[in-house]
Amino acid sequence: MELSNIEPFLEDKTIFITGATGFLAKILVEKILRVKPNVKKLFLLVRASDTKSARKRFNDEVMQTELFSVLREKIGANNLNSLVEEKVFPVAGDISFEDFGIENSEMKNEMFKEIDIIINAAATTRFDERYDIAMNINALGALNVLKFAKRCENVKIIVHVSTAYVCGEGKGVIPEKSFILGETLNKNSKLDIDVERKVIEDKLKELEAQSLTTKEVTMAMRDLGIQRANLHGWPNTYSFTKAMGEMLLGHLKENLQLVIIRPTIITSTYKEPFPGWIEGVKTVDSFILAYGKGIMNFCFGDPNSNIDAIPGDMVVNSILAAIRAHIGNQYSSSQEFIYHISSSGRNPLKSSDIRLFMFHYFTKNPWINKDGNIIKVGMPTLFSSMDSFRKYISTYYWPWLKILELANLLSWRRFDKTYKDLERKIDMAIRLSELYKPYLLFHGSFDDANTERLRMEIKERNMDDVFNFDPSCIKWEDYFMKTHLPGAVKHIF
């Protein structure tokens, strides 16, 4: 995809991207280099001790991935290396710190003078992350991005990548609206971010006094995050801390142009740079992985619930489209723009659909384990309530586990591996179901009126082929059977 006939809206622009080694940022960097090599500079924030380490990590974890094979083939390996050397500048730093802890003052001053566009793609996406870590990255990290932007002389826009599920679980159409600082989802509590920080501080002191192991502290801080999220109406620590990040940005942005991109469940690439590239186990893929490997043949979720999925390259296209629409100041900087990058409103995908896709795919293409055994799968059982799911576990699995436990003790641990494997399967099934319940029992859809207007504007400029993020063009059966499931098997199994 070339941009030769399209206005060069990124020409001579300097872009700063956080979370540069993450799944989404990698697709974004590849796309920019492939279609806009006349961009001036890309500053990429990479967690590393110094510039040399940042460059090495970028080369190892980003440039060496298969994702860049299309660009490498298109322009040649030497030309790609030259392009990266000329345009790409990995910056050693951490979003958790003010000014990202950048120690290279010369580079930092250069960034303050040159940056035109900031894209905050840094996040910890683990749903039950430690509360202190999630707070530092997802909430306070967003604030650090804003503070840094205010020191940049020429910054024109901040694009903050959030999640549509900051709106929580629910039914009906969920609007593209911003949060007011202190707003909660349950309406019965008031959220004070300073209080939340104090809760974290006090809990860490309490745990330190108990001389616990690192694992015990981690589990306690994970539990705390879920408890605080639930208290204020959010289903998990991830969506809760991302909501706080949005609140801080909206409240303190002043005259800066702020755009918030809220994708739903991000899946493998639809077309660019090639179909099916994915990295890391995402929401839906946890069940696909467990099912395909024969770990469990049942899952939790209402057959009629919406699994709102959107391919990663479409999310990246929406980011670039939003920059194109906003950078010319057609929109007032006093407004805050939110875009739901979703599929449930225009092209819904049901739990029952994915269940069928998984069954048909792994029946035709069974996984072969490390011992060379073919994993045979059956139609997965789907439970539409936690009660029915727990009843099934307690009826069919707990008794067998108890028998195995006793037999294992009486036989001097002869059945140790079998017992531990079954225990692991049960624990995984319960944990995944609890963690993903809001996504698997989702009967609503996300309003995308703002997003549709953005799509229309891009179409009017004849850029919709280059920046396609229209979910209505996806044929879900083709996408899962020919793109996503083969991609998941290749890249994450």
From TrEMBL:
Reactions catalysed, as given in the entry: a long-chain fatty acyl-CoA + 2 NADPH + 2 H(+) = a long-chain primary fatty alcohol + 2 NADP(+) + CoA
Domain Thioester reductase (TE): 17-319
Ranges where the Fatty acyl-CoA reductase C-terminal domain occurs: 402-493
Keywords assigned: Lipid biosynthesis, Lipid metabolism, NADP, Oxidoreductase
Record's signal peptide: none
Gene Ontology terms describing biological process: long-chain fatty-acyl-CoA metabolic process; suberin biosynthetic process
Molecular function terms from GO: alcohol-forming long-chain fatty acyl-CoA reductase activity; alcohol-forming very long-chain fatty acyl-CoA reductase activity
Its EC number(s): 1.2.1.84
EC category: oxidoreductase
SUPFAM superfamilies: NAD(P)-binding Rossmann-fold domains
UniProt xrefs under CDD domains: FAR-N_SDR_e (cd05236), FAR_C (cd09071)
A Pfam family this chain is assigned to: Sterile
Record-stated family: Belongs to the fatty acyl-CoA reductase family.
Biological function: Catalyzes the reduction of fatty acyl-CoA to fatty alcohols.
Name of protein: Fatty acyl-CoA reductase
